[in-house]
Backbone:
């Protein structure tokens, strides 16, 4: 993956001009003034995506589903295979991020890469990205609330977890994360750095404990054990559903892209942040997955537990140690939600800057104190809370709404990659690019996104009932339906894709920081 500046890109930035990697010059060339403070170094940019991917949160949340949809063989081998596919997606996205390092990220690049109907491509990409990110914030908060109640139940056995309490705890978590993004912006940047070490050290602690303490481990051949408890007679179908565990985990790495306008040397550091976050998460996640799988004592008991990973910790380490490790898991989920909300806010800021949201002038305003889009923070908080509310009456309803998180995000990832492929040699890459591998990597990325998206919308349990029905396609159809009606009734007349505020010298005079 080269970091050379290609000739075509060099001409775009003025030949051998040293400003080829100058952040402000790049932003001005795309028609935007600088409004956000660049406080993110390379590590910080990597940290935002690594934290949102959050392998501890993803594996602990989806492990139980994987046990019943393929078992250890799919959990381990599926993790390896899907991680490689996601790395293709990340590399293709990183190439686009280097060319268009803006907070608008996916929707901005879609509008720039499209040959025709730029506004429509940008519109649908932006709304898929927005809904996916809002769903991610809600889902992560809900997962954290679920594990918080699991910890409370271990500490005080008389405590009874309930859907109502889960919703209330989720709401409190999201509001606190909103306050952090409003009043302690510098602290949020610090917490994103801490989150990386929390995740890595947490994995070391959990994996080490599962290796050293239990007096029983499964044999090496256990990784080939297959189980299909989905209710479907087809083992192939059941195993394919198990691949979703890894796909659930690897979402949100577009966070590095969205933080481009706050990242130093974004044309290089943003794409590096995306690919490194995926690569490191893949390796560390495999270690955690192996440790959990080989520590299973009673497969049927663990697979039937309310929180299978917690049951593994209790069986192998005892209740006391399990509670300590559960705190690490909860902390990881809280870090994940905070980073997800931060990324969500930047997407709202950029989408509103181009006039694509109701009340756009309001949402893309920047606080003079923190130089961050505070109003966008609270729009993200409000939308996430709205998605959580149905969980008060039905867990199935909540699952249906947030399930569009993964499908929405990956479809939004696919659009600019597909448009870059259609552009062919006309695409002008940034300093970080794939060279001659750009096209084959992009083809693999789009193919995988299409296949995984189909899987996410198929039934995931049999028999199919009101409670077990997969409502993801319904939720996705509702989102696309609203976006389509809105587009044809009014948006197409006023929204034509990313706007330019003027020539580079004109927008430079508009800089606020």
Residues:
């Amino acid at each position: 993956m080269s970091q050379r500046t290609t000739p075509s890109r060099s001409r775009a930035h003025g030949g051998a001009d040293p400003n080829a990697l100058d952040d402000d010059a790049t932003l001005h060339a795309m028609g935007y003034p600088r409004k956000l403070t660049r406080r993110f170094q390379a590590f910080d940019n990597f940290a935002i995506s690594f934290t949102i991917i959050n392998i501890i949160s993803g594996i602990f949340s989806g492990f139980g589903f994987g046990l019943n949809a393929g078992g250890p063989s799919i959990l381990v081998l599926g993790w390896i295979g899907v991680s490689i596919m996601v790395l293709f997606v990340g590399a293709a996205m990183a190439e686009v991020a280097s060319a268009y390092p803006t907070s608008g990220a996916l929707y901005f690049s879609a509008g720039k890469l499209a040959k025709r109907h730029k506004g429509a491509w940008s519109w649908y990409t932006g709304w898929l990205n927005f809904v996916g990110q809002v769903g991610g914030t809600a889902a992560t908060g809900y997962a954290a609330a679920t594990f918080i109640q699991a910890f409370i139940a271990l500490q005080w056995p008389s405590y009874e977890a309930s859907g109502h309490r889960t919703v209330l705890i989720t709401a409190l978590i999201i509001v606190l994360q909103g306050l952090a993004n409003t009043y302690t912006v510098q602290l949020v940047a610090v917490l994103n750095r801490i989150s990386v070490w929390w995740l890595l050290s947490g994995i070391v602690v959990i994996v080490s404990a599962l290796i050293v303490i239990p007096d029983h481990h499964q044999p090496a051949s256990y990784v080939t054990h297959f189980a299909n408890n989905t209710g479907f007679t087809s083992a192939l179908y059941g195993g394919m559903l198990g691949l979703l565990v890894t796909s659930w985990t690897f979402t949100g790495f577009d966070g590095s892209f969205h933080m481009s306008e706050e990242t130093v040397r974004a044309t290089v550091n943003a794409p590096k942040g995306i690919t490194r976050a995926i690569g490191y998460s893949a390796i560390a996640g495999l270690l955690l997955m192996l440790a959990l799988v080989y520590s299973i004592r009673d497969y049927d008991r663990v697979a039937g537990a309310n929180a299978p990973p917690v049951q593994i910790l209790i069986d192998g380490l005892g209740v006391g140690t399990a509670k300590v490790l559960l705190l690490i898991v909860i902390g990881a989920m809280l870090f994940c939600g905070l980073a997800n909300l931060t990324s969500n806010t930047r997407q709202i800021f950029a989408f509103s800057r181009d006039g694509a949201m109701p009340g756009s002038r309001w949402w893309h305003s920047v606080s003079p104190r923190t130089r961050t889009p505070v109003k966008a923070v609270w729009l993200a908080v409000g939308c996430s809370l709205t998605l959580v509310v149905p969980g008060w009456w039905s867990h199935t309803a909540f699952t249906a709404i947030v399930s569009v998180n993964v499908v929405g995000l990956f479809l939004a990832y696919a659009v600019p990659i597909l448009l870059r492929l259609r552009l062919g040699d006309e695409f002008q890459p940034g300093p970080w690019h794939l060279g001659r591998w750009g096209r084959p990597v992009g083809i693999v990325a789009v193919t995988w996104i299409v296949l995984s998206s189909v899987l996410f919308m198929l039934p995931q349990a049999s028999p199919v009932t009101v409670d077990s029905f997969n409502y993801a396609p319904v939720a996705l159809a509702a989102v696309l339906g609203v976006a389509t009606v809105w587009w044809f009734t009014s948006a197409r007349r006023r929204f034509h894709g990313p706007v330019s505020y003027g020539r580079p010298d004109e927008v430079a005079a508009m800089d606020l920081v």
